[in-house]
């Protein structure tokens, strides 16, 4: 197990170098001078040539692109991901500042998605073509067809404007996290619900389920102990990927709710050609995907001991 | 949590999915009030402050009057003393400035010439700005007198120095770490990207603020900002989008419409290479300039919350000379006739042709963003279609892509929005349309290479730079605008945008400035 984890962690270094190189090349191929863009935003006007020259020097943009990449890589290997062109803060600090806030809504959002999707998905499979199945299908269809900004505005209208229960936007109290998490959770639950249903149906048709039922096993232990446990293998894969996606892709939710997360940070960085921040972000997301996949892989062994034994 | 309205109706739902008292000033005079009323919650746009050596107090968060400049630009774009009491130009290129006495920074440090020198040296270290100050430009004469000699003779320095970017800092202050100014408000708390709280400065040298404090809450999304007003989370919101301004009143709040401070215009490229060379034909430029129905654009795209553009800068800044500039009058029949006379005859599908070439133009929409222009490109496409011009609309995903296209000249018409934030009437025309130096940086000279009309324009701009009398500056700037708008038809003004603010009944007065960064928050008062 330990060697397995070490081997997977060793993948991180080539992954980091590969994705940072791709990100660097893509960012540098995109049109626009980061110095001019930064000054336009800061000054509210077109900058003069002199101002641009000073900032280009400050940003180190006068060096050739390969030199800049190698300099960045050298610093990155020592833990320094550079300084953001846009905010002037160290990239690592910015990501570290923003990560917990994103983690909050992504975590709550995922839990909410699980809480909605898995029970409804199981019930839909067990009572196939019954009222619960039809109801869950409608819920899943609604969840999948409503874009997140629409859900966000509807939640604000209901919970802030009409009921006055929650603040519209901000990040200072736990109440501020409720609507962003709800928006992510509702969006994430639709496909998860359908996947749970289809996987459960498939599992329920397996011979060992029929055998267990024939041996007189009760409905609850059969569903929870046998059917659901086997369904959890594909579900945990999807959950892991969805969680990683939520960590980096909640930009619309973060913008509407003024939630200072990583998604908004990186979209702003892309618009401003903030190369260090873009590269820092891809490193961060690459790491997040790899670690989450590792946790999911380890989870397989917990869910299904045969996998753990096979690894040995 | 207080609610302004508790109904979810169709209008509200429309607001969510897509997005009065109409005076510049309303209520009692804030400055006449002796005791500040309660605190206010103001919904503002995105927090764009940066915390490094380039920290720009002019936009600190959205200019909250922590800092002050030497002069102040009034809502009608005139200059009045602020931390400077008086100034004079000393030949050949020096401004001697006498400073206000008895002013202290929020931490009790007296305001003296040292602060002005520190501030100007900091600007010089970042390239000198539009002031053109260098490391040796600022000399202290005595505690309350400084002399500033820009690196070139800058007769417009005092109109430019009022921009909040040039606000005065106490010696040694790094505004990335703390904010300590002389302004009417002092900082209480800054939580980046969330909120910014200020309180009235009891020791302020000028008129006292009308509220005890203000909390500025950042709402990057304009619809969320509007919903915050509706939910009672904000007493006042700024930068209401023109296309959804009517939703403020639909939400039970009041819409306050300020003077024009920003514009929308199209620029015609006159030096492009094929296939973007049709702008070289004066008849095509003139026909396009009179084929645009500005009022229809305003009514359809901006719900009436703008006025027909006459120049690309707020007319107020031109003073009496504003009457010298008028946008070409809408006359589509004349436009058709002009094209006929120039040999552009109707071809298949109603698109005109000449020597086998279709009269097809490309408009680039993306400055500052494509979303800033709403449905304007489609309206222009329809209006030009009526006179037989085919218009392809290209939306760029961001400013950088827009500027890159401009740098390589790939487009005929360029749709832009901009604003005027200092008192120099010739600033924007000079920046955008002056003839560039040969061999300059391609991006920095892109506007000039695409649009510069040439010597006559440059002469007027030079006159505006050198004049001592502001009336002469205004007249020269107006003549320069005439060249690009009426003589050469390079600039086609579309709209002048009103500044729009929404507020609840808790707000009792607020004087709205045309320029957002020059907004004085001292005028805001709240019900007891």
Protein topology:
The complex is a heterodimer of chains A (312) and B (528).
Chain A: H1 2-10, H2 12-29, H3 34-43, H4 49-59, H5 65-77, H6 91-126, H7 131-145, H8 148-162, H9 174-204, H10 207-214, H11 219-248, H12 251-256, H13 262-271, H14 275-303, H15 305-311
Helix pairs in contact in A: 2-14, 3-4, 6-7, 6-9, 6-11, 7-9, 8-9, 9-11, 11-14, 13-14, 14-15
Chain B: H1 10-17, E1 25-26, E2 40-44, E3 71-73, E4 79-81, E5 84-90, E6 94-99, H2 113-125, E7 138-142, E8 145-148, H3 157-160, E9 185-191, E10 195-200, E11 213-218, H4 222-231, E12 236-237, H5 246-250, E13 254-268, H6 282-291, H7 294-301, E14 306-308, H8 332-341, E15 345-346, E16 352-354, E17 357-358, E18 360-367, H9 376-386, E19 390-395, H10 399-408, E20 413-419, H11 427-433, H12 446-451, H13 455-466, H14 470-487, E21 491-503, E22 507-511, E23 525-526
Parallel strand pairs in B: 2-11, 2-12, 18-19, 18-20
Antiparallel strand pairs in B: 1-22, 3-4, 5-6, 6-8, 7-8, 9-10, 10-11, 12-21, 13-20, 13-21, 14-21, 15-16, 16-17, 22-23
Helix pairs in contact in B: 6-8, 13-14
Strand content of chain B: 15-25%
Biggest beta sheet attributes of chain A:
none
Helix content of chain B: 25-40%
Q: Report the total helices of chain A.
A: 15
Number of strands of chain B: 23
Low-pLDDT residue intervals, each spanning 5 or more residues of chain B = 1-23, 28-34
User: What is the overall shape of chain A?
Assistant: flat
What does the overall shape of chain B look like?
A: globular
- Name the largest protein-protein interface in this structure: A-B, 54 and 64 residues
Strand content of chain A: under 5%
Q: What is the C-alpha radius of gyration of chain A, as a whole number of Å?
A: 24 Å
Total number of helices of chain B: 14
The largest pleated sheet of chain B is described as: 11 strands, mixed
Mean pLDDT of chain A: 86
- Give me the strand/helix succession of chain A: HHHHHHHHHHHHHHH
Question: Would you tell me the structural class of the helices and strands of chain B?
Answer: alpha+beta
Uncertain regions spanning at least 5 consecutive residues of chain A? none
Oligomeric description of these chains: heterodimer
């Amino acid at each position: 197990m330990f060697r397995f984890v070490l081997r997977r962690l060793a993948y991180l270094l080539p992954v980091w170098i590969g994705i940072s190189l791709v990100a660097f090349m893509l960012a540098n191929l995109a049109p626009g001078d980061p110095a001019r863009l930064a000054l336009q935003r800061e000054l509210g006007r077109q900058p003069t040539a002199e101002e641009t020259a000073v900032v280009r020097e400050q940003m180190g943009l006068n060096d050739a692109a390969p030199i800049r990449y190698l300099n960045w890589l050298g610093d990155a290997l020592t833990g320094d991901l550079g300084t953001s062109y846009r905010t002037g803060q160290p990239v690592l600090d910015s990501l570290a500042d923003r990560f917990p806030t994103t983690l909050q809504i992504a975590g709550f959002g995922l839990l909410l998605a699980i809480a909605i999707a898995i029970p409804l998905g199981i019930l839909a499979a067990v009572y196939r073509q019954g009222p619960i199945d039809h109801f869950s299908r409608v819920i899943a269809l609604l969840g999948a067809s409503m874009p997140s900004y629409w859900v966000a505005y509807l939640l604000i209208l209901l919970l802030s404007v009409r009921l006055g229960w929650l603040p519209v936007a901000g990040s200072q109290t736990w109440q501020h996290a409720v609507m962003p998490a709800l928006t992510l959770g509702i969006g994430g639950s639709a496909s998860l619900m359908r996947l749970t249903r289809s996987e459960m149906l498939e599992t329920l048709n397996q011979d060992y389920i029929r055998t267990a039922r024939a041996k007189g096993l009760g409905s609850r232990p059969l569903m929870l102990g046998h059917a659901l446990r086997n369904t959890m293998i594909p579900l945990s894969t999807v959950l892991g990927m969805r969680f990683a996606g939520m960590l980096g892709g909640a930009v619309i939710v973060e913008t509407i709710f003024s939630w200072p997360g990583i998604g908004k940070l990186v979209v702003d960085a892309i618009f401003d050609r903030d190369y260090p921040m873009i590269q820092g972000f891809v490193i961060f997301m690459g790491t997040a995907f790899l670690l989450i996949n590792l946790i999911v892989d380890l989870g397989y062994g917990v869910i299904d001991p045969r996998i753990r034994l096979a690894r040995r | 949590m207080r609610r302004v309205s508790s109904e979810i109706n169709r209008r509200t739902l429309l607001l969510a999915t897509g997005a009065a008292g109409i005076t510049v000033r309303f209520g009692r005079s804030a400055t006449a009030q002796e005791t500040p009323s309660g605190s206010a919650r103001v919904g503002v746009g995105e927090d764009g402050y940066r915390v490094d050596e380039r920290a720009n107090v002019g936009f600190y968060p959205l200019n909250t009057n922590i800092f002050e400049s030497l002069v102040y630009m009034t809502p009608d774009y005139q200059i009045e003393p602020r931390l400077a009491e008086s100034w004079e130009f000393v030949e050949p290129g020096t401004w001697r400035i006498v400073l206000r006495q008895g002013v202290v920074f929020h931490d009790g440090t007296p305001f003296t010439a040292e602060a002005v020198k520190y501030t100007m040296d900091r600007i010089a270290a970042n390239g000198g700005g539009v002031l053109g100050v260098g490391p040796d430009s600022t000399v202290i004469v005595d505690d309350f007198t400084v002399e500033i000699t820009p690196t070139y003779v800058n007769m417009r320095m005092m109109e430019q120095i009022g921009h909040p970017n040039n606000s005065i800092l106490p010696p040694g202050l790094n505004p990335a770490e703390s904010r300590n100014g002389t302004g009417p408000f002092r900082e209480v708390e800054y939580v980046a990207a969330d909120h910014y709280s200020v309180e009235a400065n009891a020791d302020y040298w000028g008129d006292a603020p009308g509220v005890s404090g203000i909390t500025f809450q950042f709402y990057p999304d304009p619809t969320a900002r509007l919903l915050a007003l509706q939910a009672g989370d904000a007493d006042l919101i700024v930068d209401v989008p023109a296309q959804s301004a009517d939703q403020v009143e639909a939400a039970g709040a009041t819409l306050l419409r300020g003077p024009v401070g920003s514009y929308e215009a199209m620029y015609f490229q006159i030096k492009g290479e094929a296939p973007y060379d049709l702008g070289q034909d004066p008849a095509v430029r003139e026909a396009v300039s009179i084929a645009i129905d500005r009022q229809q654009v305003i009514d359809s795209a901006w719900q009436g919350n703008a006025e027909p553009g006459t120049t690309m800068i707020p007319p107020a800044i031109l003073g009496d000379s504003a009457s010298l500039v008028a946008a070409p009058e809408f006359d589509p029949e004349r436009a058709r006739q002009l094209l006929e006379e120039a040999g552009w005859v109707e071809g298949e599908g109603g698109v005109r042709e000449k020597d086998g070439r279709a009269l097809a133009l490309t408009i680039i929409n993306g400055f500052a963003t494509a979303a800033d222009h709403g449905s304007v490109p489609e309206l222009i496409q329809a209006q030009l279609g009526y006179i037989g011009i085919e218009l392809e609309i290209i939306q760029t995903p961001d400013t950088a892509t827009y500027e890159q296209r401009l740098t390589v000249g790939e487009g005929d018409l360029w749709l832009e929005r901009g604003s005027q934030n200092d008192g120099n009437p010739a600033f924007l025309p000079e920046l955008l349309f002056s003839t560039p130096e040969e061999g300059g940086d391609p991006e920095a000279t892109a506007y000039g290479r695409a649009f510069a009309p040439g010597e006559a324009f440059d002469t007027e701009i030079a006159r505006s730079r050198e004049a001592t009398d502001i009336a002469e500056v205004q007249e020269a700037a107006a003549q320069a605008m005439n060249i690009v708008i009426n003589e050469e038809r390079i600039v086609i003004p579309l709209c002048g945008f009103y500044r729009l603010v929404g507020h609840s009944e808790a707000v009792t007065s607020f004087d709205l400035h045309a320029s957002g960064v020059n907004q004085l928050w001292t005028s805001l008062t709240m019900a007891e």
